[in-house]
Amino acid sequence: MRTRATRILGWTTAALLALTAVLALVVSPADVNQKDAVRLLYLHVPTAWLAMYVSFGVTTLASVLYLWPRTRSRFWDLTAGASAEIGVVFLGLTLLIGSIWGRTTWGVWWTWDARLTTTAVLLVLYLGYLAVRRVVADPEVAAKRAAIVAIAAFLDVPLVHKSVEWWRTLHQPASLFDERRLLDPQITGLMLVTLLVSVLAFTLLYAWLLIHRFRLAWLEDRAADGRMALALAERHAEASLAEEDDDDTDDAGGPGVAVAVAEPTLETTS
Amino acid sequence: MTHTAYLVAGYGLTAGILAGYATWVIGRRRSLARTLGLDAATPPPTGPE
Amino acid sequence: MWRDAALVAGKDLRVEARSRVGVNQVVPFALLILILFAFALDSDREVLTKVAPGLFWVAVMFAALLGIQRSFVIEADDDARDALRLSGLDGAGIFLGKAGAVAVQLVALEVVLAVGVIVLYDVHLRSPVLLLLTCLAATIGLAAAGTVYGIIAAGLRVRDTLLPLLVLPVLAPVLLAAARACDAALAGTPSEGWPWVRLLAVFATIYVTFGVVAFGALLEEV
Q1: Cβ separation of A226 and B49 shorter than 8 Å?
Q2: What is the mean pLDDT of residues C6-15?
Q3: Angle at which helices A3-22 and A189-248 cross, to 10°
Q4: What value does the mean pLDDT take over residues A137-143?
Q5: What is the pLDDT of residues A15-56, one digit of tens each?
Q6: Residue C188: CA atoms inside 13 Å, Cβ hemisphere, count?
Q7: How far is CA A38 from CA A5, A49, A98, C84, C149, in A?
Q8: How much is the pLDDT for B2?
Q9: Which of C156, C170, C217 lies at the smallest CB-CB distance from A152?
């Protein structure tokens, strides 16, 4: 995407976010049941939707495309990583705002219902994905392993959700309020408009962040290649120096031999 | 904590975290581009090669 | 593929038989977890008996982590990994062999832990068929998923911290389902436990399939 288009996207996003804030905080009415707490949902719902379906969906899709030999390209690996990181940020926000909202309406910071529990597990799954990307040194190896982790995580989410759902419905606790009803309030009229604007604003925000994070990832990739090339060049230079020294002197030259001996050990500690 | 305080906390944290993240991404990109000696606006590939 | 699996499983089990790491270290470790839970939960007999299934499976999960790490550590020595790759053995077969060996060791551990739970937590066994099938399905799932992530984390210096982070969230449904199934069995209401066993079977199928398909590719990498 050309930089100018990105800038337009950025400003549009900012404008929509501002509009969202105004609508959410000032213009739209308070909910009958939740009062003002519903205003937090205008943040919570879009971040949840974007994190879980869009961000991680993109990561999974990009991972598949990377692994598929015909479409393999660094582009997909970088996209997967960028999208996952943004997804983790959004998901963290989702849980944070959700927790504050829960405190306001339910009086508790957390509850073990199916959706929340699955979301928490999802967050940890993708933190693991990001860890694999960072920890494995060779970019090609890291890309392949991370892609497989992404797909495995994607497969795991329905399993986690289903199992937790069963668990919680079998043990329906006596609750003063219907958690589910509060989670899906009847949203109509101006509230619906606000929600839609918010979803649109956050979607554009995701796109804008993805573009920038992708560019950063691409630069980091090139930097890593550069460092690799530099290190290789240095070793080659040392090796040829060592050869020259050996040619010049008859008995074992000090520094030259030391370098030539040091090289193999450096390589085997990988 | 009153409702207002929770709202402020929620919206404030959201704005702060998102703005912070965006700043970090763009800032790191600029400094990395400088280190690599590339123009920060050099477009990376827009699609898989 | 099955022949290769048997070969690899036999090798791994023979290594274990000779080194006895599982017997000497992992089993005591798991028993120790059971004992520590008694300290943590204030050995009030009633509480422990109630939560025994959950504690049992938590102990099994942590022991499984050790078993999986061990499964790949023995490959790291003497460049056994390269030998494995060059041996011409089918990737899927290697996966099934390694996962199979881990599963066998886990089953042995579960027998010991079951005795531990009966003795330490005053548990009375009921619905043995349900319990057995739960253990079988859960163990296969643990071993399969664990082996997949084990190869992903293998060879990395941070393997010991990365593997738990990767695999424990994935194993969460197994813990949940196995504990609930055992709850139902011990409470004398096995009909409530069978749906959980079905979930365990689904989980095991998915990860065995995933391992068979992906392991060859993963082994090639490093």
Answers
A1: no
A2: 84
A3: 140
A4: 81
A5: 888 888 888 887 777 776 667 777 888 888 888 888 888 999
A6: 2
A7: 34, 17, 11, 59, 41
A8: 63
A9: C170
* Confidence label for A214 from pLDDT (cuts 50, 70 and 90): very high
What pLDDT does C47 receive? 82
| C-beta atoms of C172 and A170 within 8 A | no
pLDDT of residue A259: 41
pLDDT digits (tens, 9 = 90+) for C12-61: 888 888 887 777 888 888 889 988 888 888 767 788 888 889 999 999 99
Residue C90, CA distances (Å) to A12, C8, C84, C93, C97 in order: 54, 10, 10, 5, 10
Which chain A residue shows the shortest CA-CA distance from C159? A135
> A21: nearest CA in chain B?
B11
Closest Cβ–Cβ partner in A141, A155, A163 for C177 = A163
Domain that holds residue C89: 2-221
What is the residue-averaged pLDDT of chain A? 79
Q: Which chains touch C (3 or more CB pairs under 8 A)?
A: A
How would residue C144 be classed by pLDDT, with cut points 50, 70 and 90? very high
Query: What is the rounded CA–CA span in Å between residue A99 and residue A104?
Result: 9
**Region C76-83: what's the mean pLDDT?**
67
pTM: 0.82
> What's the per-residue H, E or C state across chain C?
CHHHHHHHHHHHHHHHHHHCHHHHHHHHHHHHHHHHHHHHCCCCHHHHHHHHHHHHHHHHHHHHHHHHHHHHHHHHHHHHHHHHHHCCCCHHHHHHHHHHHHHHHHHHHHHHHHHHHHHHHCCCCCCHHHHHHHHHHHHHHHHHHHHHHHHHHCCCCCHHHHHHHHHHHHHHHHHHHHHHHHHHHHCCCHHHCHHHHHHHHHHHHHHHHHHHHHHHHHHHHC
- Architecture category of domain A3-214 in CATH: Up-down Bundle (1.20)
CB B32 to CB A40 under 8 A? no
* A166/C169 CB distance under 8 A: no
More confident residue, A228 or C32: C32
Measure B36 CA to nearest chain A CA, in Å: 7
The structural domain count of chain C equals: 1
Domain ranges of chain A: 3-214, 227-268
Q: Which residue of A has its CA nearest to B30?
A: A216
Within an 8 Å CB–CB cutoff, is residue B5 touching chain A?
no
Answer yes or no: do A132 and C199 touch at CB < 8 A: no
Give the confidence band of A5 by pLDDT, cuts at 50, 70, 90: confident
Cα C210 to Cα C51, C149, C169: the distances in Å are 32, 11, 17
- How much is the ipTM here? 0.84
Chain A, chain B: beta-carbon pairs less than 8 Å apart:
86
The answer on pLDDT for A254 being more than 70 is no
A and B interact (at least 3 Cβ pairs within 8 A):
yes
> What distance in Å separates the CA atoms of residue A110 and residue C64, rounded to the nearest whole number?
30
